[in-house]
## 1
Amino acid sequence: MRHSLNRERLYTTGIAALLSTGLATGLMGCKDSSKSFGESQASAAATPGAAGGLAVSEKEVVVGQLHSATGTMAISETGSIEAERLAIEQINDMGGILGRKMRIIQEDGASDWPTFAEKAKLLLEADHVASVFGCWTSASRKAVLPVFEKDNGLLYYPTFYEGLEQSKNVFYTGQEATQQIIAGLDWIQKEKNAKTFYLIGSDYIWPRTSNKIARKHIENVLKGTVVGEEYYPLGYTQFGSLINKIKAQKPDVVYAIVVGGSNVSFYKQLKAAGVTAENQTLLTISVTEDEMLGIGGENMVGYYAAMKYFQSLDNENNKKFVAAFKAKYGPNSVIGDVTQAAYEGPWLYKLAVEKAQSFDVDKVVAASPGIELTTAPEGYVKIHPNHHLWSKLRVGLAQADGQYKVVYESGLIEPNPFPKGYQ
Amino acid sequence: MSGVLQSVRPSSLRPSLRHLTTVVFEGQRRRENLYFVVLAVVLLGLFPLALDNFHLNLIGKYLTYAFVSLGLVLCWGYGGILSLGQGVFFGLGGYCMAMFLKLEASDPASTSIQSTPGIPDFMDWNQLTSLPAIWVPFKSLFCTLIAIPLVPGLLALALGAAMFRRRVGGVYFAIITQALASILSILIIGRQGYTGGVNGITDLRTLLGWDIRSDSAKTILYYVNALLLLGAVALSFSILRSKLGRLLLAVRDREERVLFTGYDVAAIKTFVFVLAAVYSAIGGAMFTLQVGFMSPSFVGIVPSIEMVISAAVGGRGSLFGAIYGTLIVNAAKTFFSEGFPELWLFVIGALFIAVVMIFPNGLAGMDYARAARTVLGWFSKLGKMRDGGSGRPVVAVVAPVVPSQPRIKVEGQ
Amino acid sequence: MNISAAIWAMQAFNGLSTFCVLLLMALGLAIVFGQMGVINMAHGEFLTIGAYTTYLLSQVSERWLPALANWYFFVAIALAFVLAGALGLVVEHFMIRKLYKRPLDTLLATWGLSLIMQQAFRSTFGAREVSAKLPDWLMGSLKPTPTIDIPINGLVVMGLTTILTAGVLFALFYTRFGIDVRATMQNRAMASAVGINTARIDRLAFGLGCGLAGVAGAAFTTIGSTGPTSGSLYIVDTFLVVVFGGAQSLFGTIASAFTIAQTQATTEFFMTGSMAKVLTLSLVILILMARPQGLFALKVRR
């Protein structure tokens, strides 16, 4: 037995050594190609407008796209990939940036955070991309952040998120938590005369941080009470007990930040337990039109969602955007808040480069604050010196067809990623 | 019970047994030593010479998984204990390292904007105002280096002792370790004030002032990692060549007989399980150092199963096979998910099925002799067809050199 | 009737309903894993087949057969059984059949299968989750008193679980097929010697297990999501239920589903869901350490 084992090992090791040699030489090819690319960039860097060894030539500027095209996060990130591509295509049709067409190098983060970091490094160090549009989850952003800071890259991050971050090298085109939470709570308190709130979330950083801000605001500003705060593991599917607790407390408002597959279970079970918009007010900040596809509009009817963008927004910019998106990706495509925020990334980059008259990261960053995007589908946004966007908050009323009807629109809200008194 | 039996064991058997095995295994040892040298040359010479920094780092990351596979070969391939929770130990080792590095990165000067400077940023966001007690030992590198093998080792010891004493094995053990992986990942994600939650512990910068993010540091870490791995392989061989190694095989194949011969089967199994856990923990710590962060996504069920599969592809009965298998599976994963995102799950799924169905002993256990004969047979047939059958039958030359071998037993239980 | 009594009543129902969900998803696995010893990691994907079947039928009925809109759900359940079962037969023939002597290897092979199935769902239905439009009566609730709501989908799952469990128990203990199955599982060589076609029994039993998973998946569209990876949400819990019950005992599976569900539902009411889950899993592991054979062990000669 032992003997045979060992005999087999002979062949194995031989073959494995051969294979690994092959592997190594195969990868060597990659090495050479990436090197030669880098060298070609070095010559390109001499052109005017380009700086810092970025991949910018007379004709084109190379940008990176770093999302999960595979793995569990692909569901969420597909919309962002599509929106960024659409924006880049439109920019190129208009003549590009400073006369240069944008060329995309797309890398797949594969829903794996180290992969995100590696690919970010590859984009910045081997491809010398001028900017990157990418990431979706906070975990992936946290993983690439040190890379962007070390290599002085430029990242446009589209997702609404928990805040508590501000980097020279990142622009956050989604809302940070206070922008999304405070105005929404103010509105619902006034509208429903709400005094008691029940906070629910999936158990990870964004819901917990958001609920923390919500609780402070409810208790200190609105003078209401939080009658419950509950967290369930990601992917949890049994919400019967939670629903009974809600019924026992009878809160004026349920404030829900449930994500992923749990979302579907939560809303379906709410409905089946007799909790509907008729007898319970619910405000969520985690259900975009994308999520509603999975939940089913009929299970959400009458609930409220607070975010900066809804597909149904009634303005000229948005009509054009929705039409262009559907023309490119099919009439049944759905556009959620993050998809729209991702669409803004390339446009904001274009404006910043044109203002700086350079692709150099430091100059683009310096030029960015104060830049206004008047063609944004959400209406109007402006870059704040803290790299987040001034934006409005809308409250949408869920419809059976999976869309939201906008029932409230705030004024422009200043982004405040490190809110004092909310931590 | 076992203690009593152990004292009755005929000790006179031992010398003769040793003599016998020495004779049988002499040739094998020489070959193993040769393969060890080959592995060392590949890891220390070939890869660093042939690859640029980026790909070398990639290989370095794969090699940290190879620690896990190595442990799995010992406890699964040799000991018959399948653990689906190796990610737990990998993660614990990684988190221990990450805690030290994070504390070093969060000195009061660089965290001055926080309401409590000097503690990691995520603690500050979660309203912790002082360092939790479990973090305190990780201020010292010495304690950290002890904790890396100790924490996972103790957990494995507690688990192994409890389970193997009661003779929980096989499938039950696999499912229970799986539940353990699920518990730990829920805990880490849920207790984010203490663990950094789902984002993990990120933005690690220096080790005792040495910047681990620079290319030169990564190259050095690669070599450290490779040397540690070679050390682990050497240690594994010395264990497998000892009496313990033979007992381990005996336990896998005929647990009852070993038990009735008077050996403490539970202790043997626990030992190898703890060893596998410690290997995984070292891998995890090296992972943290090389990749620069640790997150709960390496603790859960999916990464744990993927590690088992890497070991299976390489060959669960072969230490070398496991290392090459891990390299190949992860390289394939990277290659396919980049080049063919739609296809890669199909490919990788098919690979796993193929490994089990067609070559259950993995790459290491494939009957290359038979495969070679078959292929050569085709060629010789081709040759015969071409020159009217006068071609020299190549197969006749090859056959005596590599006679076909019986396959090793693959039952897990 | 005051509020707190109503809450207790609903919470009791919730416990029962969780029990039925656990039992329903574990029933198929109790046969495949418990009886046959096949560690089917693709069990969750067979559930997903049922869910997608429901989704497809809801699309069909919406577009072409509006008359069926209220009742297509039951057709979907039957169809889910047939489809998942048929796929189970195929998988058994090409894969599982060759692995009965290597239980741990079935784990690896079926994990590969589950990856392939997930990608197949993704390629066919898209990466996004879909939603079957369920008839209104199914998503409503009964109100025996003004303060009590009994979810109808919970009742349907309960009814379905009762019928299927009774059916499986009857099939296993009172039919020729069941006797053959039990004989084969307990002693394959002897069963074969007395003239049982064990290969056929294996195939049918595996198909039955997968079919039951399909039914569970169809039923779960009323309470959960339908997406390429939806099934994988259930897989760990499912295995724990079967192992905790004592793998070879169907009664054990029932008892264990009940215990786990009640622990989960009760702890959840007093603490946050994450901690309740950790507590429940830890309790199960501790009990399994003390009693590795599970709650009910079948006494057989090995």
## 2
Amino acid sequence: MISIHAFILIPILTAFLIPIFGRQFPKLHLGWVVLPVPILLFSFFVSKIPVISANKAITGSVAWIRALDLHFAVYLDGLSLIFTLLITGIGSLVVLYSIFYLSKEKESLSHFYTYLLLFMGAMLGVVLSDNLMVLYLFWELTSISSFLLIAFWFRRKKSRYGAQKSFLITVGGGIAMLVGFIMLQVMTATNSVQEIIAMRDSIQDHELFVPSLVLILLGAFTKSAQFPFHIWLPDAMEAPTPVSAYLHSATMVKAGLFLVARFTPVFGGEATWFWLVSGVGIFTMFWGSFTAVRQNDLKALLAYSTISQLGLMMSLFGLGSAALQGGASTNSIIYTQAIFAALFHLVNHATFKGALFMIVGIVDHGVGTRDVRKLGGLLSLMPITFTLSVIGSFSMAGLPPFNGFLSKEMFFTAVLNAPEMSIFSMDTWGLLFPIIAWIGSIFTFIYSMIIVFRTFLGPYRRERLEKDPHEAPIGMLLSPIVLCTFVILLFFFPNLLSKYLLAPAMNGILPTYQNMEGFIPKISAWHGFNLELLMTAGVVILGIVLMNTYRFWNVIYDLFPEKLSLDRGYQWILAASESGSKKATDRYMTGFLPNYLYYIFGFLLLMVGGTLFLSGSIAFDPSNDASVSLYEGVFVGIMSIAVVGILFAKSRMTATLLNGLLGYSIAVFFVLFRAPDLALTQLVVETVTTVLFLLCFYHLPEWSKEDRSWKVRFPKIIISIGMGALTVLIALSVQGNKLFESISSYFEDSYELAGGRNIVNSILGDFRAFDTMLEVVVLFIAGIGVYTLVKLKAPQGGDKIERK
Amino acid sequence: MRENDIILQTVSKVAVFIILTFGVYLFLSGHHNPGGGFIGGLTLSSAFVLLYIAFDVESVNAGIPLNYKMVAAVGVLIAICTGMGSLLFGSAFLSQSSAYFNLPVFGKTGFATVTLFESGVALGVVGVVITIMVSISEDV
């Protein structure tokens, strides 16, 4: 199936065409050009639902670099399908929304849509790749496109700060993940995820198993904004709202969840995995919702709420992984329900959170502020937006009749099952799960209500708003309306989703449980008066009470002063690493050219000379040497005189000319030894360098002004004598050491092998053409380097503008 | 400022063409005899350097309005692209081949893909050498 490869590459290729479109049709809003791409992809993946729901996986592989086991392998199963549908579906809606959100006149749309499409392709690549290295490639590509999108308004300092922060954290985690991948590769000798899953039993006792697990989780946690790496997500909200809705709530931040789900069949059942995933997840869920309540900016509130929801899903994946401990049985099937809940909530969260972000964008667009302290009373002015926000927030709070209620109930079921586990010492610690989950849910309820009540109800104060509020155009409302429709539809028909999407995904994550009774539960809204329902009731009652008494208990937030926040920690680390590396670099980068030459030659002396001595390779074998002729003797004499003459030269000019004499004499030697090519090259190079030397004279200080004290000269003398001796030693020892067969037969047969009689050029242009090509590239880089160093000096004070 | 370099200038006017011709000869003869892209390129650039020495930078630039950075970039591109050309014929990257043809005037003439590659090398060398020379001398 080549077509799936093509569908990953379509967005990336289109991304490169976007700037051309932008130039050709300046009057067209580029969004309309982009919109067909995700719609096309979405319909393609929808058409695959029948195949996938029959529990088949679509695979395909294109060889890339065989020697490195690098194949562009794709694997489309239930789990990938859910993600691809989210990526392309929400992607279509976001593009549609952005057409009305971003103005064609003010914004650089070709950048925006290029980055967005790049992200879409990269994200599809992440969820479809079966090869670890390709997955990593796409993974980092999502980080890069996210960086570019956050910094879209790059003139704002906060945008740049947020972009850098998200980049450092997610790419840092990504590198840890890469190391984990390499460990997996070392253990299994394959890069294919599916093959690794098949080898699960044979690697579990390997000493690298747990380290690779931890490192891969680091990648997942940083990407999915889990505590304590969550700090990048609120700052990423500097991105345009369509981006926040797309990358930072619906898709990219879920890549970590995808990774956890994908690797659950490998690592699931391991205690470290269980505790890390579920523990970090549940704490993040609590911390995110707790912090969200204190936010004044609606987008920041949504960011923390996303963190909290991601934590919720993460903890569910962790709890569900217990099902893989000790093999599949009817006793442990109850734990699998956590994973089912996670997948279900994944879809639900994408619908309601995407809608909420778009709503906040509409409010921001309409009134010019997102600060809840200024907002209020917008109900009568923006009735449709209000309705949509009620649907979105009530679903997030876990109230019926919205899809969030169903998955929230299942979440409660899963955490209530936790204390009954008899493994991983859950019988003692397990009780914490339902308690933390319940407290977190109360805060979730509170912030969900803040979105509705403090924005749309309460007193309307025009003087605090920047613009006259008005309802958004229908184009902007369309996308959230579609998402909110899904929020309601999924409440009434959850089992359709379960049958076609969730069930195949479950089979992919937990293949051993396939076809077991009760593995795919029937989702229903009413279970009778059970503990879960009581918990929800408690959440609502306590939530309302706490919300109305907020001003009495908000002192609790003072317990976490700004000074001790994780954000400060991040800034401190950043500043410390900057100043630390500057200190370390300044110590040896003195800006004094002779010092650099000391490093280079000193290193060479130590390494080469050391190797020469330690390996005992100093061996002279003069038996094969030709005898010295008269001419050669004469030229050696001339060269020695020139060399000694340089040392006593009074002016630079003399020294340069003597140096040129040396070079020309070498050329004569080449002639004597019948190497006309080398002789020619040497002659021309010598000429050109002499001219270059003469040019540089202008910039050099007076010869006599240099410090010629012994303190300065002594190291120079040591280095020069050492280098000279070393070169002579190497030249003489080469004859004495035959490490391998001579390759001169290649050169003798150069006419047959390369079609040329000139062996020097056969080497340059054919045998070692790769070297020559790269040498030309290096030469070019050097030339451009000289040019930029000389020509492009920053104007005085010009550098400071960017630093502001 | 030089006061009188009439001799140098007159000699250069003639010599430059000799050097240029020699450079082209070296470049073309490289397949079987001494020469090749690198030496050819260096010789060509030494002709330019001679011009820059004999005359001043402004008048040479006015006479030969070439952007040498572009020359170098084009050379590098040619060197890399000819390497990729062999991929189109199913051979490995940078494979070269040669053949003989009977041409009307020249008789039996050899053609080799390596000449294309070497022309990239030559252009790269010319571009870089002159770029470095000119940028350093203009900095004065």
